[in-house]
Specification:
Length: 224
């Protein structure tokens, strides 16, 4: 294992891996509750569920970056290029989705003279700028991060399971782009299965890997 995987890296990795799993499951639960509360299925999820969903994503994004930073430290030297690329896409995902959801959370309720302009900017009804950026984050940057991270895991049955779970989540998320191609956002639900359904399983298993891995550099000092 890489000498960069210090006790700090292990602690951050464990916390972020299980944190992403728990908060993503909380997001799925809040989304389900919000959808069940709708009288008309054509309506969008309203408060308090809408605000809760936005806040959960704001917490998931930095944990996502922390997880991939820990993975980069954990990765063997021969796989550092892949882990570095995965971390880069994780940073892009977190940056874009944080900007989108913070903007929606703070500005979407502001009074805009032109309702059409407001919908074009802030709504999650296709097409809108917010929706397009969210798709860029979760159906482009997320799958690229997951697919570049997948080859880091090989050898044991647990690591092989993580590799295929990451691959499945990434490919499903990429398939969500079909919603844009077909101009039908129902197809994007395929991608949601990938990052909200399959990925939390992968991160929980990665947390187990971090728990099982003994830091090779407990003091956190890098060798010359």
């Amino acid at each position: 294992m890489n000498a960069d995987f210090s006790a700090t890296s292990r602690t951050v990795g464990i916390f972020s891996a299980f944190g992403v799993s728990v908060l993503t499951l909380a997001y799925v639960g809040a989304l389900a509750a919000g959808l069940l509360s709708l009288k008309d299925k054509s309506e969008q999820v309203s408060d308090p569920w809408f605000s809760l969903l936005e806040i959960l994503i704001m917490f998931i994004a930095p944990l996502f970056v922390a997880l991939f930073a820990a993975l980069h430290d954990w990765a063997p030297p021969t796989s550092k290029t892949l882990s570095r690329i995965a971390l880069g896409f994780a940073l892009l995902l977190a940056g874009v989705t944080s900007c989108v959801h913070f903007t929606i959370l703070t500005l979407s309720r502001a009074t805009v003279a032109d309702a059409d302009v407001s919908d074009l900017l802030f709504s999650f009804t296709w097409p809108s700028a917010a929706y397009a950026l969210d798709i860029l984050a979760w159906d482009v940057f997320f799958p690229l991060a997951a697919l570049f991270a997948a080859p880091l895991f090989f050898g044991s049955p647990l690591r092989t399971t993580i590799r295929f779970t990451l691959m499945a989540s990434g490919l499903l998320a990429l398939a969500g782009l079909s919603g844009v191609v077909l101009n039908d956002m129902q197809w994007r639900n395929i991608g949601i299965i990938g990052y909200a359904g399959v990925f939390p399983v992968a991160t929980a298993l990665i947390g187990v890997i971090f728990l099982q891995t003994r830091p090779t550099n407990p003091a956190g000092a890098k060798k010359d």
